[in-house]
Backbone:
């Protein structure tokens, strides 16, 4: 089963995202801040990391850069989930190594579809690179 790591400091949002993804058929592990996300990712080896931008101890941008600097983590797609929708914020997330940037608020049923679409896109890209 596909494993998703959710890094979100607001418990209600984290629980909603976890429920939405579990309902969508994903296995979910959780982290409450960026530093914990970096630690948990290395233990859990998720298929995708869904991360808030503004978190304590380490921002999502910092956590993404840290993960992308670890060889074993480099190919795990990171998707930012944030209320910060300015073009500069989105570009900062993509520059940090994110695959996608999803804006809050989001429809819970749409979130699982968007995560699946990112996973499908990454899988197709990897298959093409091997060919």
Residues:
């Amino acid at each position: 089963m596909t494993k998703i790591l959710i890094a979100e400091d607001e418990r209600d949002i984290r629980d909603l995202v976890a429920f939405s993804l579990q309902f969508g058929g994903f296995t979910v592990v959780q982290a409450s801040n960026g530093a914990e996300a970096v630690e948990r990712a290395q233990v859990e080896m998720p298929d995708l990391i869904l991360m808030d931008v503004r978190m304590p101890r380490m921002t999502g941008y910092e956590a993404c850069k840290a993960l992308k600097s670890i060889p074993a983590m480099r190919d795990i797609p990171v998707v930012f989930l944030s209320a910060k929708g300015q073009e500069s914020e989105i570009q900062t997330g993509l520059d940090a190594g994110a695959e996608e940037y999803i804006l809050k608020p989001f429809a819970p049923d749409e979130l699982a579809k968007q995560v699946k679409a990112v996973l499908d896109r990454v899988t197709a890209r990897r298959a093409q690179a091997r060919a």
